[in-house]
Sequence to fold (323 residues):
Amino acid sequence: MTDSDPVRLYRTVRLIRRFEERAIELVHAGEIVGGIHPYLGQEGIAAGVCAALRPGDLVTGTHRGHGHVLAKGADPARMLAELCGRVTGLNRGRGGSMHAADFGVGVLGANAIVGAAGAILTGAVWARRRRGDDVVGATFFGDGAVNEGMLLEAFNLAALWRVPVLFVCENNGYATTMPVDGAVAGTIAGRAAAFGMPAAAVDGQDPEKVREVTAAAVARMRAGGGPELVEARTYRFDAHHTFEHRVRLDYRPPEEVAAGRSRDPVDIAAARLPAAARAAVDAEVEATLDAAVDFALASPAPDPATALDHLYASGLTARTGGG
Ligand SMILES: Cc1ncc(C[n+]2csc(CCOP(=O)(O)OP(=O)(O)O)c2C)c(N)n1
Fold:
């Protein structure tokens, strides 16, 4: 379904927002070990892009990937259980925050390696198209990925082989603490031009605008038009990673943070709904997340005896060491 649906877009941004806030509580409570990279402030991008995709289309995401997985349709309870490292998680608790995947809804995985997800998606969509499947894909990456060789190689092969992949740059202005202006020569869209790919910039805070731009690109890609790039301009409302909640880093001026936070994708999506519809979605999301937290915390951790399971395809067994 690619038509504009304000209720659906609001539900998605609100679900991601509240999921992240609940996950941060669980980090502070010691239930999510190792912390997370919150997607707060960037929800409009995942919501808008995924609203323009079909259920069978494919996505890959980043270390800041919870929003991508949820927007594509993964079960929030199993996603939260994954973050908590529980056996009921999407990946039996072995992937965690940065490697959650749900093939059933076309999520081939979040990815902790900056710049890697685009190459994985390009290969996957190419293989599925060769099989005759009518799929397209969208891959998300930050501004910090735009000089990574793997991503540029993916641009090249996708363009050369006309693989229908939408490369979605979530430009939040920083790679950890490094401002984009201090790291990126030229422009992000200019990288697409080098490979003959069309590129567009969009206000990433407005999920409807993101959906519109994506729907147009996806229509061209389904018609054989080859890959495209979208630069979604956004702002990260919270820390790069929850470790910053303990060690406040001083790399963004307070006025900049306040200005960035003043354009909130949840508010922008909410303003398109009557108050009663908004309240109904809020209640539904809260009930979903209450149930998700209960489910995750009631689920057991994996049995340590199974630590070597799932490391190799069937037929191979792991060596336990010693030669
Ligand atoms: C190949 C690689 N290099 C470095 C890192 C360490 N690292 C993790 S997140 C990050 C910053 C990424 O910034 P960006 O791509 O802009 O995404 P954002 O965190 O802003 O969402 C870096 C350098 C990594 N994970 N992978």
